[in-house]
Design brief:
With 119 residues, this protein is mostly helical. It has helices spanning 26-35, 46-60, 71-83, 91-101; strands at residues 2-5, 8-9, 24-25, 66-69. The chain has a two-stranded antiparallel ribbon. Strands 2-3 form a two-stranded antiparallel sheet.
């Protein structure tokens, strides 16, 4: 079982009220990854759809903003996220990628610089 904190990441520039970058929501990124076909040219077959639906179901059942995935579902999500096209360069996307790829049984702690959950 892997657990991923469903973070919402923002950018804050004190003193600049005009600065407005959309926030990055892990929940929306996981949903987008689960829905995106691995091969956009071919589309998703039924087996891929079933695996994606398992991730979406787990997302619907997430409690306390933590996504819990069986190991096989996590491996599939990792594959999807690895192939996901990104809208641009943003360290928040890199953080999301790392949080998915390095998930463990305890969600990574957002307050710690290294993201490692306290044991």
């Amino acid at each position: 079982m892997k657990r991923i904190a469903l973070l919402v990441l923002t950018v804050d520039r004190p003193g600049d009220p005009q600065f407005n970058i959309p926030r990055v929501e892990y929940r929306l990124l996981v949903e987008a990854a689960a829905r995106m076909p691995l091969d956009p040219q071919k589309g998703a077959d039924i087996a891929e759809m079933r695996k994606g639906i398992r991730i979406l179901d787990a997302l619907d059942q997430a409690r306390d903003d933590v996504l819990a995935l069986e190991d096989a579902d996590w491996e599939f999500l990792k594959t999807k996220v690895d192939k996901m096209p990104w809208a641009g360069t943003d360290r928040r996307f890199v953080r999301f990628y790392d949080d998915i790829m390095q998930a463990t049984e305890a969600p990574r702690e957002p307050a710690r610089a290294d993201g490692i959950a306290a044991t």
